[in-house]
Design a protein that fits this description.
Layout lengths: L2 H30 L3 E10 L4 E11 L6 E7 L8 H14 L12 E9 L2 E2 L2 E4 L5 E10 L4 E11 L8 E3 L2 E4 L5 E2 L1 E3 L2 E3 L15 E10 L3 E4 L2 E7 L4 E7 L9 E4 L3 E7 L2 E7 L4 H22 L6 E7 L5 E4 L2 E5 L10 H13 L1 H6 E2 L10 H16 L21 H14 L18 H21 L1 H14 L3 E2 L2 H12 L4 H9 L6 E6 L3 E6 L7 E7 L4 E6 L5 E5 L5 E6 L15 E2 L3 E5 L18 E10 L2 E9 L5 E9 L4 E11 L6 E11 L7 E11 L13 E8 L26 E13 L6 E12 L9 E15 L4 E13 L6 E2 L15 E2 L1 E14 L4 E3 L4 E18 L9 E14 L4 E12 L8 E6 L4
Parallel strand pairs: 1-14, 20-21, 21-23, 24-25, 33-34
Antiparallel strand pairs: 1-2, 2-8, 3-7, 3-11, 4-5, 4-8, 6-7, 9-10, 10-18, 12-13, 14-17, 15-18, 16-17, 19-20, 22-23, 26-27, 27-30, 28-29, 28-31, 31-32, 34-35, 35-36, 36-37, 37-38, 38-39, 39-40, 40-41, 41-42, 42-43, 43-44, 44-47, 45-46, 47-49, 48-49, 49-50, 50-51, 51-52
Helix pairs in contact: 3-4, 4-6, 6-8, 7-8, 8-9, 9-10
């Protein structure tokens, strides 16, 4: 063959090989984007709450390796340990519900068979929680090849609140069918089903669903209805499909649903609601359209023709699915002054149509890409809509001076700052199961995550940031993304290596805290007190009006800026607030910012850091009240730091002036600790009643969060008191249980220890568990004390659900105390918290034994009687029958007889501000047994007896 011909043939061969490689690569790229397809046929029994279904899944091997097995998530098959069940009940207090009205139920998903064509396939359950279904293929599946798998399965729907369950006529189905695991270059992502939040990671897929159910049922679903047929047996069959790929297929089903629809262009928003909630349903549709319109302009058009907002008994604010969001029925009952908060909840869940549905991510390990990104864009949307630093509450003019308000922006970062100041910070990234306590997810993935995106924008500049987001939301539309992908786009668009930024903020618990260290005649000193390195600006203003701005990379601990002996007027670190997660903004200024706010009525709400400026030392003062007292009260505090309280109130009953000075230092040793003291002087102008005293206390929380304002968190407290009773410290939810102890409150100096330890739930009316409260006190001749004694006591309460579904419960309490000297009156058993058939001082001694039984059962449930703009809701009336028995004695146990009483009580279970808090208003009437000298006693209070 001639040389030229050989060369020509060689070139053609090279071209052929080159083209072939390109085509193969292109084909591989094509099948990498090929979505799975689900064809599901369902029969739903709404009486037994069972599903019988067949599912055909068309799966393409989009990986670059051959596979022999296919994996599915079967979430309803989750198996729970006793420890997990108890914690579910306990954490339910965070949402103010009992999640299992008939007792704990998990439901189930059972796969009956797996087929490929006519061939049976072997299958089995895997995973530590048995939520992974492994199906062995009859032959290996090569890259690019497609396989169709048929699964026959049944589902048992539990009677439970949540995204999967039924309650009071509403069935909620989220991830109720076998759902393909994600297969990528890292293999199969067979994550366990963590019991909280969204432990999900799925590919976008197409769905066809055919469901047969009673004809009266209204169905809200991810797909759009293509056909509906009435059947002769009183059922109907609905055929639905998805127009574009979605992450999951969810259903909300109820014959009680009413529907409000609104349109925006080609989009129809369907708002499903219950009777009485039409106004809120209309608002929900309007709020969703506002968010969809906004995000379509930012990230590309919302492609689907329908979006559904579905009211259900979720048990918390909202939950996202594809083209559908669940909203808890209680959210529709928010007071009118929380209309913006309603907007927040609707818009947050709607925003997940981008940052979850269209742009998928690994929610089990990288929640930041979902929740952090969504929260950032939601905050921007709300501030564009309502104004910069928009306030959450819409208060009437006459109430604005009385009720402290806060902004959406404040609430974004402050939960994280509180956690970091109290030693509870941790990396944002990590497996869901690695979070010690579920509510911390909101502070870190949501709050801190949104602030990190905000700081990223400051680092990149608006123009570059916009390019990053445009690429990110377009390139990964209907695909799965990862943090690696996002960082890669940031680096490419900015021309920088930003790995340092993401590594520090997302993968470590390092903190940021810049401060003005000194201002001298010739220089300004800036200090990096944190462990995290961030570039920061420093602005110096001189007395002559000249300004200079310096940039510092923050990599060293200190920076000195020469001032050429000019007189400095003002120093500002981070003047543009580009670093929103700087832990202490007060030290960013020289001189310190000082803020004073006079208020028409001083109360504890004015002390909360969320309602005060974060960059100043804050003073609040105004008229104060307390019982029969009136006077002046004030406080000075550093946000999340020390607070000083000062008040002087005149007691009209005691005709005395009560003056108090208090101090608290939270976050001591960067832990959940409070060190505080309080000094008081009560001057009644009558010598025998003049008294002064105080308390010193150290409290350590043993659990990251309390789940209610009226619930005592697990903790220990050490205290020193003089001439008073130690009953509370550190806020509303920190009340100490020092009941049944007798205090003279004069010439008494006491060292003590107490605390609270419990595993019970749900708050506030436990079905199960225990609570233990110890106390030890020593009184002596110090600080002017004339009394000497010691005493120890312990109380154990237990809770039992007697009849599941009927809410019949038994609560028991036993309390014992021992003290010396034997002739001292150290305990008193009568009264509201003890023997309710006797006055508080009727039964006293140096030793005591007390026991109580209460049988609690509902008289009327689900009342839903709302008052005062839905601020109060009478939800349930509970009847209580009780028996108390106890005795107090001095040296000889046989000196006194046991006192006994029986009684009945009413418990009014009240929801406060919809789902935000609960209280139990308590009425008791008790009659002593075999004691004719005592009359029937009546008591009133808040919350259960024990």
């Amino acid at each position: 063959m001639p040389f030229k011909l050989r060369m020509l043939t060689y070139k053609k061969s090279l071209i052929f090989i080159f083209v072939t490689v390109i085509l193969i690569s292109f084909c591989r790229f094509c099948h990498a984007a090929e979505a799975a397809r689900y064809d599901i046929e369902v029969k739903l029994d709404t009486v037994t709450h069972n599903i019988f279904a067949t599912q055909n899944v068309s799966f393409t091997n989009n990986s670059d390796t051959q596979i022999k097995d296919i994996y599915f998530h079967i979430y309803p098959h989750r198996r729970y340990t006793k420890k997990e069940i108890r914690f579910i009940y306990r954490f339910a207090g965070y949402f103010k519900i009992n999640p299992f009205p008939d007792g704990f139920q998990a439901g189930d998903l059972k796969v009956e068979s797996a087929l490929s064509g006519n061939k049976s396939l072997s299958f089995g359950e895997e995973g530590e929680d048995k939520t992974i279904l492994k199906v062995a293929l009859d032959e290996p599946l090569d890259p690019g090849q497609t396989k169709e798998i048929k699964l026959v399965f049944s589902v048992d729907i539990p009677h439970a609140y949540g995204r999967f369950g039924w309650h009071k006529g509403i069935i909620s189905l989220n991830r109720w069918y076998p759902l393909l695991s994600v297969l990528d270059k890292n293999g199969w992502h067979n994550y366990p089903y963590y019991i909280y939040h969204h432990p999900y990671f799925s590919e976008a897929a197409y769905y066809n669903l055919k469901i047969t159910l009673p004809k009266e049922e209204v169905v809200a679903a991810t797909g759009i209805v293509k056909n509906e047929t009435l059947n002769a047996d009183g059922t109907k069959t609905i055929e639905m499909e998805t127009e574009f790929p979605v992450r999951d297929f969810a259903l909300g089903i109820s014959r009680e649903y009413l529907l409000h629809s609104q349109t925006y262009g080609k989009l129809t928003v369907k708002s499903y609601y219950l009777k009485g909630d039409q106004k809120r349903a209309e608002q929900a549709a309007s709020f969703a359209i506002g968010l969809l319109k906004n995000h379509s302009g930012l990230f590309g058009e919302y492609p689907y023709s329908e979006f559904n907002i579905v009211a259900n008994y979720l048990g918390y604010g909202g939950d996202q699915s594809s083209c559908l969001v669940f909203i808890d029925t209680r959210v529709y009952k928010l007071p009118s002054f929380l209309e913006r908060y309603f907007d927040f909840l609707i818009s947050h869940e709607t925003g997940h149509q981008w940052f979850y549905n269209m742009i998928g991510s690994d929610e089990y390990k990288e929640m930041f890409l979902d929740e952090g990104m969504n929260s950032f864009w939601l905050l921007n949307y709300l501030e564009d809509k309502y104004g910069k630093d928009a306030k959450v509450m819409l208060l009437p003019k006459f109430l604005k001076p009385f009720i402290p308000n806060f902004s959406f922006r404040d609430s974004t970062a402050l939960r994280y700052i509180y956690m970091a100041n109290n030693g509870m910070d941790r990396p944002v990234l990590g497996e869901l199961s690695s979070f010690r306590e579920p509510s911390s997810i909101f502070a870190l993935a949501y709050g801190k995550g949104a602030a990190i995106v905000d700081m990223l924008r400051a680092q990149l500049g608006q123009e570059t940031f916009d390019r990053v987001i445009k690429r990110y939301t377009q390139e990964f539309r209907f695909k799965n993304t990862s943090l690696f992908d996002f960082i890669k786009i940031c680096n490419e668009e900015s021309g920088q290596d930003l790995n340092w930024f993401f590594d520090q903020w997302l993968k470590t618990s390092k903190t940021c805290d810049f401060a003005v260290k000194k201002v001298s005649g010739d220089s300004v000193g800036i200090e990096n007190r944190g462990s995290l390195e961030m570039p920061v600006k420093i602005k110096i203003t001189f007395q002559d009006g000249e300004e200079i701005v310096k940039s510092w990379d923050g990599k060293s601990k200190n920076l000195d800026i020469p001032t050429d002996n000019k007189k400095v007027k003002l120093v500002e670190v981070d003047p543009d607030n580009a670093i929103s997660l700087d832990l202490d903004k007060t030290n960013n200024y020289w001189p310190k910012n000082l803020f004073f706010e006079p208020v028409p009525l001083y109360f504890f709400g004015h002390e909360m850091p969320i309602v005060l400026p974060k960059n100043s030392i804050n003073t609040v003062a105004g008229p104060g009240t307390g019982g029969s007292s009136l006077g002046v009260a004030s406080s000075v505090q550093k946000p999340f730091g020390p607070i000083v309280r000062l008040s002087s109130l005149y007691d009209f009953n005691g005709k005395g002036l009560d003056s108090t000075l208090g101090f608290e230092l939270p976050g001591l040793f960067k832990k959940q600790t409070i060190l505080g003291f309080e000094l008081f002087n009560y001057d009644s102008n009558r010598d025998k009643n003049d008294v002064s005293g105080g308390k010193l206390y150290f409290r350590r929380e043993l659990w990251p969060a309390s789940y209610g304002l009226f619930d005592a968190n697990d903790h220990v407290t050490f205290y020193l008191i003089r001439n008073q009773k130690f009953d509370k410290s550190g806020g509303l939810n920190a009340k100490e249980n020092t009941n049944n102890l007798r205090y003279r409150k004069k010439d008494e100096a006491i060292l003590g220890f107490t605390g609270s330890f419990g595993r019970y739930g749900p708050y506030q009316d436990p079905d199960y568990g225990f609570k233990f409260t110890p106390c030890q006190e020593f009184a002596g001749h110090f600080l002017g004390g004339s009394e000497y004694f010691w005493r120890t006591s312990a109380e154990l309460s237990n809770y039992y659900l007697i009849i599941p579904g009927k809410e019949n419960k038994l609560a028991s309490r036993i309390k014992a105390g021992w003290g010396g000297s034997a002739d001292k009156r150290l305990f008193q058993l009568g009264g509201f918290e003890g023997l309710r058939g006797y006055d508080s001082k009727a039964i006293e001694g140096s030793r005591m034994l007390l026991g109580s039984l209460e049988y609690r059962f509902p008289l009327k449930r689900d009342l839903k009687l709302y008052f005062i703009d839905n601020i109060f809701c009478l939800d349930k009336i509970q009847m209580v029958g009780f028996f108390d028995a106890g005795k107090a004695w001095f040296s000889d146990f046989s000196d006194t007889d046991f006192k006994k009483d029986v009684g009945i009580g009413l418990r009014m279970h009240v929801n406060l501000i919809s789902f935000l808090e609960k209280a139990v208003v308590r009425f008791d009437a008790a009659r002593p047994i075999n004691d004719s000298k005592e009359d029937t006693h009546f008591w009133f209070g808040i919350n259960q007896t024990f």
